[in-house]
Design brief:
Layout: E1 2-4, E2 7-8, H1 14-18, H2 23-28, H3 31-41, E3 46-48, E4 57-59, E5 64-68, E6 75-78, E7 85-91, E8 97-102, H4 108-119, E9 125-134, H5 153-166, E10 170-179, E11 183-185, E12 191-193, E13 198-201, E14 206-212, H6 221-230, E15 242-243, E16 245-246, E17 251-254, H7 262-271, H8 275-282, H9 293-306, H10 310-313, E18 320-324, E19 330-332
Parallel strand pairs: 1-10, 3-14, 4-6, 5-15, 9-10
Antiparallel strand pairs: 1-2, 5-8, 6-13, 7-8, 7-9, 11-12, 13-14, 16-17, 17-18, 18-19
């Protein structure tokens, strides 16, 4: 169930459907949500650097989620979203907040189950914030290549809204900053997202546009980026979000994922491709990616080439565990 202004919303009537509108289109025009989007857009993007002893944060990569306690963590967020979506679910009663970075519709239903269960109080009214997924559907890029007909963003945003609507919990939709609300044009006429990241201040519940500096995407950046791809080989993880953070103990646990040697062969092949062709082949939004996208992907490829056997990364099939130092940095536990 979705609430707006504390009132439940329902499916569109037959007249709306006949005019080609569905529930997502209607919500994008809702005055309360439009006002919230305009207010969000007016905020300056907050830059997050390393965690400190007095300002602990948790960063969520693509296809991960993390649930945090405000008594332990002050900021939780994600960025680097183009056609992906950052989803925040917060229990106002106790401040427990779950943040995910969803990339495809196939992870939405199970991902929502994981997030809601982690908050531990499904009877409460849960505040929801949705940011990301720019309007990529009607464009041609500057080289004249047609993008995927319906785009990647719309099906994902639509799936999230429909899934929230059908669930029994009460989700108070506070922000829907997606699609046309999160779209601008670059100097070449390509449509790109206005913001690709968000953070939530756990003490206040305030959501702001955000960008995380490289060292703030800790711990275990390369391995966690790698798992976005290779986790598809693991039937136990396929369709799920990666649950990587334990807020009770303030530790990251990167689950063991096994991958085949073919990944190193693929990495070697892609290493021979130019940056421009790499973007066109491996990005859902090649002209909207941040400047460091190709560099990050090449670092992941180099890691797989250097360490093709998963057992190097996960000796004995054990997870990689990281604990926070007193100064806010992370160290790997033996």
């Amino acid at each position: 169930m979705i609430l707006i202004d504390n009132q439940p919303i329902s499916f569109p009537d037959s007249s709306s459907q006949s005019q080609g509108k569905d529930i997502l289109d209607i919500l994008l025009e809702n005055p309360t949500l439009v006002s919230a989007s305009n207010q969000f857009k007016s905020q300056p993007e907050r830059i997050i650097s390393d965690s400190g002893a007095h300002m602990k944060h948790v960063y969520v990569f693509q296809r991960e989620f993390a649930t945090v306690d405000p008594a332990v963590v002050q900021i939780v967020g994600t960025d680097e979203a183009t056609t992906c979506v950052g989803l925040v679910i917060r229990n106002k009663n106790n401040g427990l907040t779950s943040v995910s970075h969803m990339d495809f519709p196939e992870v939405v239903d199970r991902g929502l189950n994981q997030m809601v269960q982690s908050i531990n109080n499904p009877e409460a009214i849960l505040d929801v914030f949705v940011v990301g997924g720019f309007d990529d559907s009607p464009n041609k890029n500057r080289r004249g290549r047609q993008t995927r007909k319906e785009g990647y963003s719309y099906p994902l945003c639509h799936k999230i809204i429909v899934s929230l609507l059908k669930r029994p919990e009460k989700f108070h939709l506070r922000l829907l900053f997606v699609l046309r609300h999160n779209t601008k044009s670059d100097s070449h006429g390509n449509q790109i997202p206005i913001f690709g990241g968000l953070l939530l201040e756990t003490s206040t519940g305030r959501v702001l546009p955000a960008c995380f500096e490289n060292h703030a995407r800790s711990p275990d950046e390369i391995v966690r980026r790698l798992l976005v791809s290779v986790s598809n080989d693991d039937l136990n993880l396929r369709g799920n979000l990666l649950d990587i953070y334990d807020t009770r103990r303030d530790i990251f646990t990167i689950p063991c994922v096994r991958w085949s040697m073919i990944w190193s062969e693929l990495a070697y092949e892609t290493a021979q491709v130019s940056d421009e062709e790499f973007l066109l082949q491996f990005s859902t939004s090649p002209f909207a990616e941040p400047p460091h996208f190709v560099q990050c992907q090449r670092r992941i490829g180099r890691y797989v080439i250097d360490h093709p056997d998963w057992r190097y990364t996960f000796p004995g099939g054990k997870p990689r565990v990281f604990q926070r130092n007193d100064d806010g940095t992370w160290f790997k536990c033996d």
